[in-house]
Structures are given as structure tokens and as C-alpha cells.
Hints:
Blueprint: E1 13-17, H1 34-49, E2 52-56, H2 75-82, E3 86-89, H3 94-102, E4 109-112, H4 119-123, H5 126-133, E5 138-141, E6 165-167, H6 169-184, E7 189-193, H7 202-208, E8 214-217, H8 222-228, E9 232-233, H9 243-255, E10 259-261, E11 265-269, E12 278-282, E13 285-286, E14 291-295, H10 297-308, E15 312-316, H11 329-343, E16 347-350, H12 353-361, E17 370-371, H13 375-382, H14 388-394
Parallel strand pairs: 1-2, 1-5, 2-4, 3-4, 5-6, 7-8, 7-15, 8-10, 9-13, 15-16, 16-17
Antiparallel strand pairs: 11-12, 11-14
Helix pairs in contact: 1-2, 8-9, 10-11
Amino acid sequence: MKTLNDFNFKNKKALIRVDFNVPLDANFNVTDATRIQAAKPTIIKILEDGGSCILMSHLGRPKGVQDEFSLQHIVDKVEDIIGVETTFVSNCIGEEAEAAAAKLEPGKILILENLRFHEEESKGDVAFAEKLAKLGDIYVNDAFGTAHRAHASTTIIAQFFPENKCFGSLLEQEIKSIDKVMKTGEKPVLAVLGGAKVSSKITIIENILDKVDHLIIGGGMTFTFIKAQGGSVGDSICEDDKMDLALDILKQAKAKNVQIHLPVDVLAANAFSNDADTQVIDVSKIPDGWQGLDAGPKSKAMFHDVVMQCKTILWNGPLGVFEMETFANGTIELGNSIAEATKNGAFSLVGGGDSVAAVKQFGFEHKVSYVSTGGGAMLESLEGKTLPGIAAILE
Length: 395
């Protein structure tokens, strides 16, 4: 696996695929710069070697050239965060881009215009990738968030740098963190899977049953498992057509000696609202007109005990509707448990949109070992798929 440390970038132009798909407000100010911060170590290493950085990224889902999706809006923010003079060029290929790249001096940064202003990017067009490749000496992929897409700048371009390609430090960390959970993690290994639907997590569950010792299932998924075993779930979210699958997962887990932990009680509400009437109730005895929206006190205590005995922890998905304060406590207490286990020496990886949002919202970001930056890419890694952006560097 080639990383930044395999190269000296002195007087070299590093063409870096970053993921600067950051949220902007109505005045085009960056509202969350996490992804820019995440690319900083890679950029700094190259600049300190005496190289220069040509950054390419997409932003949003433009239809052709649309000013609101121009990367020019983020140039000042990048300059602030990296602390280095940063210029911008209003195309990512062609004469203008080539001229800007040619005159880029060591120690400086150039940002190319939005790759997705060209439909060839998403189509994985070889000729487009070749035009991008002209701009740099060494190709660095540091965009985990797009590594699951075979786009021109994330995958196809690598063939034009047979010897001169590597992972950036963010992508390297992502790969190592997932490997720690899936391959090399100290046992016992725990996966916590939450979220609304079993159907969106089936492939992950089936893939990780060979790798974990404990599996906590929470959130809306719970009720498909409970109903499949004959419980009453009231008006709780439930995928009736996935009940046979749920029973099959329980059977597979037993055969593989994996302990599955389902909530035993829930905080139920008589409406999907922060102000609804609530009651704590046995998870398999929820009356009609009521729905489970968070883990109950017995479940939280049980989950805490499981977390504390594990040495490697994957957390993907919340335990309740954490966006509503009334139903956030299960997710918060799980975060506290994982933070405590991490402090005691466990390795904890958080990934997937909702759990990352929860970790940030409740201040656990620096209390876990690693927070993944890529939602879809992370999920596909957990499903056991080889991501095209990663395979292209390894080839």
C-alpha cells in the first residue's frame, strides 16, 4: 500500500483528489469545514517536502456549469485552514488549467474548478481523466467519501500514474481503521448497528457476522426482529417483508457464536413528536397507537455492559430518534459508554451519516478513536466490497 511516506514531493506537483463537498449557506460561506480540515495533514506533508498541491474536488450535484457550485466559494476557507496562499482556476482541464498548473510554485496551492461541471467526471471518461493527469507529477487520492465511485478523478486517472500514485493520510487512516474492525481488531469485537431499516443494513450484517463477537441492534430495525419473534410492536416502524430475514440473521449469528443484543425495553410515544406522551414499556408489548422511539433504561444498562467488555467497537447508526431531544438519550448514553471504553483502551470507529451527525452533535468526536468521513464508502467497505478508488491505487 503506497502512502505519502513513499514519496519525496520536492519540486513535484501533487495532483490530489480531495473531498471538499462541503455545505455552504445562502451567502456561500462554508458552514462545516470538517472535510477541509481532514485533508490538511496530506497537504502540509507535501508542501513541507517542497512540493506544490493541485486540489481537485466536486461540490454538490451541478447540471453543467452553475455558479452556486463553484469551488471558488471555498478558496478563502481553504487558505484560512491550511495557512498557505491558494489560487483558483476556473476550469479543471484544458489550456487555462494547464497554464495555472505549470506556473504553480513549490509551497503553493491551486484549486481546480468543480470536476462535475463536466459530465465526463461521473461517467469515468478515460480522455477526461488523461487531461486531468497532465496537470501533476504524482497522483494522491485522499477522498474516502468518493472512493466507492469509479469516477474519472477517483479511479480512472490512476492508470496514468503507474508508479507515481499513493493514498493520502486521510484515506490511509480510513483503510487502517476499517481493517482494524474487520481484520486485525483485538477481541472481543462489537458492532452496534442502528437506524430505521434492516433492509439497508442486511449486507453489512451478513458480512460482519464472521468478524464480530457481539452485535447490538438498535433503532427502528429492532422492531422487525421483535415482531418476527412474536412480539407486539404497536405502531413502531417495521418491515414485515423482512421478518423471515431477521429470523435467519438470528439463526446465522447463533451458528457463528455471535451474541446478538436487542433492546428489552423502549421509550414509546403516542405520536412521532418531541412533545408526545411517553412511557417506558417492554419492547415486545407495545400497544397499538404507541411507537418505540428510543432505548429504555434496562436496554441502556445492558448495552453499557456489552460495550465495556469489548476491545474493538464499530458504531453505525443511532439507537433512537436522536434529532428529537426527548428521544436522544439512548444514543447519548451509548456514546458515553463507547467514550469510556475508548478511554480504557478500546479502539472505536464511528461511521455512517446519522451516527457521525450524532457524535458531532453530542460532542463525542474527540472521545472515540476515529470518525469516518465517508458515508456510502464506509458502508460499502463494511459490506466487504473493494472500493474502486482504493483498488486503483493498489493495482
